[in-house]
Amino acid sequence: MPREKFKTLTQQMYYILLCLGEECCGIDIMDKAAALTGGAVRVGSGTLYHLLDQFLAAGLIRETRAEGRRRSYILTPEGRALLEQEYRRILAQAEDYRRVFGKE
């Protein structure tokens, strides 16, 4: 059974949306995601622009400006809500781990 679109986010999806808490263009998103994660999460241009198109179509982000081929985006309230939902899901997983393994 295929995964429901945007029910859970991949790391790349999460960090793209996280970067779009403020207006960014594609290259800025790629740089910020790598910087935020110490290089652990890298978003390639093909993945980035495919996901940006999907996020736009779903109303999770909006285009804020276009200068030639350079486009900038920002989260919509729906995108922020999805990011918050994913954050809470990740926190719940961490809490489950602590409960099972007794970590504080």
Tell me what you see in this structure.
The protein has 104 residues and is α+β, with helices and mostly antiparallel strands. It has a single domain (11-101), classed as Arc Repressor Mutant, subunit A, CATH 1.10.10. It is 57% helix and 14% strand. It is built from four helices and three strands. The protein has helices at 11-19, 26-36, 45-58, 77-101; strands at residues 24-25, 61-67, 70-75. Strands 1-3-2 form a three-stranded antiparallel sheet. Helix 1 (11-19) crosses helix 2 (26-36). The chain is globular. The termini are far apart.
Output the number of helix runs.
4
Provide the helix percentage.
55-70%
User: Taking strands numbered 1, 2, ... along the chain, how are they ordered across the largest sheet?
Assistant: 1-3-2
Number of domains: 1
Order of helices and strands: HEHHEEH
Alpha-beta classification: alpha+beta
Kindly provide the name of the CATH class.
Answer: Mainly Alpha
Low-confidence spans: none
Overall mean pLDDT stands at: 92
Shape: globular
CATH topology: Arc Repressor Mutant, subunit A
Query: Span from first to last CA?
Result: 36 Å
Q: At CATH's second level, what is the architecture?
A: Orthogonal Bundle
- State which percent range the strand residues make up: 5-15%
Biggest sheet architecture: 3 strands, antiparallel
Radius of gyration: 15 Å
| CATH homologous superfamily assignment | Winged helix-like DNA-binding domain superfamily/Winged helix DNA-binding domain
Number of strands: 3
